[in-house]
Amino acid sequence: MDAIQIEGGARLEGDIRVSGSKNAALPILASSLLTAGSSTFHNVPALNDIRTMCRLLELLGASAEFPIKKGKTADRHVVRLTTKAIKDTTAPYELVKTMRASVLVLGPLVARHGQARVSLPGGCAIGARPIDQHLKGLEAMGAKIQLEHGYVVARAKRLRGARLVCDIPTVTGTENLMMAATLARGHSTIENAAREPEVEELARVLNKMGARVRGAGTPVIDVDGVDELHPIEHAIIPDRIEAGTFMVAAALTRGNVLVRDCLPEHLDAVIAKLRSAGATVTAESGGVRVRGPATIQPVDITTQPFPGFPTDMQAQFMVLATRARGQSVITETIFENRYMHVQELARMGADIMIDGRLAVIRGVPRLTGAPVMATDLRASASLILAGLVADGRTEVLRVYHLDRGYERIEKKLRPLGARIKRVKGRM
Ligand code: EPZ
Predict the structure, then answer these.
(1) Packing angle, helices 22-31 and 171-182, rounded to 10
(2) Tell me: the pLDDT tens digits for 256-267?
(3) Which residues are catalytic?
(4) Which of 8, 51, 144, 253 is 20 to 30 A from 57, alpha carbon to alpha carbon?
């Protein structure tokens, strides 16, 4: 298994480019099941999760070209999906257990193919993560839902429009129901919908396919069902969480970094907290520049659904707090078990006390390098950041977690001066 080794202490300087958004690309690739034909998506991040989604779509009968061959070369950031003949409607446990986002084929399959058999995702490192809201919404649209042998089996001749009220603003739940509603008979309203930029981006794609979605990005989404959708060509928005991670790296290392190709309007809450920590953050043409402060200020954070502070940036900001002059309090409100990185940071000398969803972080003068274990995607990003400022060498193990959401992070950070490399054959 790969590991990543970091010699800490370098001040990061220069430009770094953000890849396409993982959490926008996954539902968009799944939405191709709503059409019959070939769609082409650009600016797709070259990540394991994207490969998993392509494999799942191929199992269902689509053909997936990723990367796209161009003469002797290949474009690693373009996916072409052809969904003429869907021959199977089962998303198997073997794939779903490796990537919960596989559940995003549920809505499109029921809406266009009248049935879906999708393995229940089960729990994950950061929380129970049930999909009751996805199922409740599909049932309200007339789907017959059964749970059998670990699978959700959903059937409907044709879904019908309905008023769907989510108990919580679930991101993939909103995406699944929005996709399903595009081919339902009649009008649907999704209330208390998630407002994340990835939901808005999916609505943009669906409307490009011929759907009638209004209000994405607000708590109420309206969808007028249509009879069919057509394939499209589309370039995916940049990854706001990857961008935010690089911004924290600059702030942490007293750096001066231009984060290219990110959209500042997707990062308001993150940028506000970076400024509270003392960083200088300025929008420039082509990106956002972050200059790290000489002294990091403590910052209190409560994770919230968008436009609040994203839970996917909580672990990264915890590292910033470990080096702040004073005490910070973080409250994780979205997932019940998203502090797996705390024990690993403690191994590096961090002073963090956990009490349920609350974390109290007392800044320390230094972190020291150590072998540490990645447990989930964003936790692994926080260990990379800690390694950048720790004295000596840090070795982050099990980086397969990281590779699910960060494209060759060591190759992106090295030109900024980071002393970082990937090593093979670690347990
Ligand atoms: C999406 O997950 C993202 N994943 C997650 O990013 C992100 O952390 C999360 O939204 C919150 O922003 C993708 O977009 C692929 P939710 P999702 O449904 O949709 C509860 C990363 O690091 N809930 O909005 O699964 C749930 O348990 C990943 O890139 C129900 O109770 O999250 C959680 O507590 C990690 N019932 C809360 O709602 C449901 O039916 C929010 O979850 C659905 C959700």
Answers:
(1) 30
(2) 999 999 999 999
(3) 124
(4) 144
